[in-house]
Structure formats: structure tokens, C-alpha cells
Amino acid sequence: MGGEAATSPDFDPPHAYQKEPLICGLAGFVGIFRRGAVITGEECLMLTKKELVRLMAERSDLPQTVVEKSLNVLLDIYREQLAAGEAVVLGDLGRFQIKERAARAGRNPATGAAIEIPARKTVRFQPGKHLVEQLNPA
Questions:
Q1: Domain ranges of the chain
Q2: C-alpha to C-alpha distance for 47 and 69, rounded to whole angstroms
């Protein structure tokens, strides 16, 4: 089945069919559970850049080429800001920021040998208050 959604009248587990689209977040990626999609394990349909451009073009009545170029410029600016060590705040959605991970001891899972994991920078996403409230309605 892979990442494809399957709909089958013969298969109807309680979690398989959602009345409303649900946002799915996995390792910083945002996707959408589509109505009627069978979701297995941690899979979800991801909102791709191509799909985002299409949705933005539909809602703004702009050509997809203009929307795609604008989105590319926006993403370039965000990458530059993060590379410079500055946070990127996206309104009520949340904030992306650079986080320093300290060097630490680890183990090679194949051999069990002790290894040193070097320090590195990573991007961390912190959801905004309104997004958290939307995902967890009272």
C-alpha cells in the first residue's frame, strides 16, 4: 500500500474514515488526513509544495507560476534567516528556530561500540498557541 490512500467498502476500522480533514504533523512536516483515506501506522498524506502552490493559487486567484515564484522567494528568505541563526515566526502557526545540540556519547546499534556523536545545529519548530488550540479543541 505504501504512502497511498486506499478506500475500500470492505475495510472499515474505526480510525480509517474521518468526517473532517485532520492535520498530521510528523518530524516537522505537515500533512492532511483526507476524508475516506485509510491511514496505517504513522503514515499520512503529506501536503506537498506542488499541492500548496495549487491551493494558494485557487484561494488567491493568481496563476500557479506567480504563486510558485513567490513561495520560492519566501522559502529562500526563511532559509537565509535560519542559516544566520535567526528565528522565523509564522504568525499563529508557530516559530522555527536553530537549536544547538551538544556533543554526546552514543552507541553503534550494529556493533554496540561506544561512539562520540558530534555537536550540531538543527531546526526546531514550536507550534503557536492558536495551532495547539486548533489541534486540541476543548
A1: 1-47, 49-77, 87-138
A2: 18
- DSSP code of 89? E
* CATH class of domain segment(s) 87-138: few secondary structures
Amino acid at 35: R
Does the pLDDT of residue 18 top 70, yes or no?
A: no
pLDDT digits (tens, 9 = 90+) for 97-106: 999 999 999 9
Contact 97, 124 (CB under 8 A): yes
pLDDT tens string 89-133: 998 899 999 999 999 999 999 999 999 999 999 999 999 999 999
pTM of the full predicted structure? 0.59
Among 52, 88, 83, smallest CA distance to 70 is for: 52
Alpha carbon distance 116, 92 (integer Å): 39
The Cα 73–Cα 136 span in angstroms is 32
- The conformational region for residue 101 under phi > 0 = left, psi -120 to 50 = alpha, else beta, is beta
